[in-house]
Write a structure and sequence with these properties.
Elements lengths: L1 H7 L13 E5 L5 E6 L8 H9 L7 E6 L11 H7 L4 E6 L9 H7 L3 E4 L3 H7 L1 H9 L3 E9 L17 H12 L3 E5 H7 L15 E5 L18 E6 L11 E5 L1 E2 L2 E2 L1 H10 L4 E4 L3 H9 L5 E7 L24 E9 L2 E8 L4 H7 L1
Parallel strand pairs: 3-4, 4-5, 6-13, 6-14, 7-8, 7-13, 8-9, 9-10
Antiparallel strand pairs: 1-2, 1-3, 11-12, 14-16, 15-16
Helix pairs in contact: 3-4
Length: about 350
């Protein structure tokens, strides 16, 4: 199963709006005879690739799959039936499918007389498929907030300069994060200060993410780097914004609340267009708005071994008034990236008991 989880990760960034899935098939003696992963939306699923690799050796064997085999016919056929038809006698999957349109594969397998078990390495498989699982369960894209800061938490110097806080190695790693995401999002402040490009560079075979610029007054100039043809771009503006100077730019007009776009007002239409994962690269104000809205599912911080002492903090107001309201995180990884430290963390679920302890 752990090998199947590794295989599933190869599909990150290319399978949306479908999940990433890996499959390993062993023969009757337990030897691996087939491997596969879901490579692209609309293409064969992981089980089909693995069955093709295994051939006749799959008969009487076991399939290890990271997600419950699907039970419906969409652009491809139901994998539960494919496994049964190949003579697989045992199926072990990590995570049950929460999508009501595709779930029920386990029951179909059991009805066919196939020994079926669920839950093996479920936590690891969930982590690897977090974006898709979050989007299905919550009906909105999974959001990763990425930031770079000094050890004293500054995202820029006092004069506003911020290039480059993090190392070249960290910046290259961010391109990997972009390649694994459906969309990259920045706000108006970042647009004006940095003129970001946001396309993926240096990642072979990468699918370019949708570049989203949140610019309520449509102040973007036509020569902005984000408007080139390196990747698709969506400009999010207020309902009454004058965009006549931006002909041909795809627009999403949204209502404003106190001059700002509501976080969920934005995430809902993105979900409808098939966006399942968003990399939030905006500045501290946009990050604070997303955190206050409860729409940050993962935090990735690149901490540079440097001190500034003054300048904007990495995170602005997030509606937290006292220490008891601090958004607690669970650190899932801490690794060196060049001279920097990359920390990955996910929010700790807020429970009644946790809130009581904090008070």
């Amino acid at each position: 199963m752990r090998r199947a989880i590794e295989l599933a990760a190869r599909g990150l960034g290319s399978t949306s709006p479908n999940p990433v899935v890996g499959c390993v098939i062993t023969d009757a003696s337990g030897a691996v005879v087939g491997e596969g992963w879901h490579q692209r939306a609309g293409g064969p699923h992981a089980e089909v690739h693995a069955l093709h690799a295994a051939g006749a050796a799959a008969h009487g064997g076991t399939a290890y799959v990271t997600l419950e085999p699907c039970n419906h016919t969409g652009r491809t056929g139901p994998c539960a039936q494919a496994l049964a038809g190949a003579g697989i006698t045992r199926v072990v999957y990590a995570v049950s499918d929460p999508n009501p349109q595709a779930s029920g594969g386990g029951a179909t397998l059991r009805a066919a007389g196939i020994d079926t078990a669920a839950g093996l390495l479920a936590d690891e498989a969930e982590a690897g498929n977090a974006a898709w699982l979050t989007s299905v369960r919550l009906g909105r894209p999974h959001v990763t907030w990425k930031y770079a800061a000094t050890l004293d938490g500054r995202s820029a110097a006092a004069d506003g300069s911020s290039r480059w806080i993090s190392s070249a190695e960290s910046r290259a790693d961010v391109h990997r994060l972009r390649a694994e995401s459906d969309a990259v999002l920045v706000g108006g402040g970042t647009l004006r200060a940095d003129d970001p490009h946001l396309a993926v560079r240096g990642v072979e075979g990468a699918t370019q993410p949708l570049r989203i610029a949140l610019d309520t007054r449509a102040a973007l100039v036509p020569t902005a780097r984000i408007l080139d043809d390196a990747a698709p771009t969506l400009l999010v503006v207020g309902e009454d914004a004058d965009t006549r100077h931006l002909p041909g730019v795809e627009l999403l007009r949204l209502p404003l609340h106190d001059g700002r776009v509501g976080v969920h007002d934005l995430l809902t239409p993105l979900f409808r267009r098939g966006v399942r994962s968003v990399l939030l690269e905006g500045g501290p104000t946009l990050a604070g708005a997303f955190l206050e809205a409860g729409a940050v599912d993962r935090v990735i911080g690149y901490l540079a071994p440097a001190l500034l002492g003054a300048g904007p903090a990495a995170l602005a107001d997030a509606g937290i008034k006292n220490i008891s309201g601090a958004r607690r995180l669970d650190i899932t990884e801490a690794v060196r990236i060049g001279p920097d430290l990359r920390i990955t963390a996910v929010p700790v679920p807020v429970t009644t008991s946790t809130a009581t302890k904090e008070h």
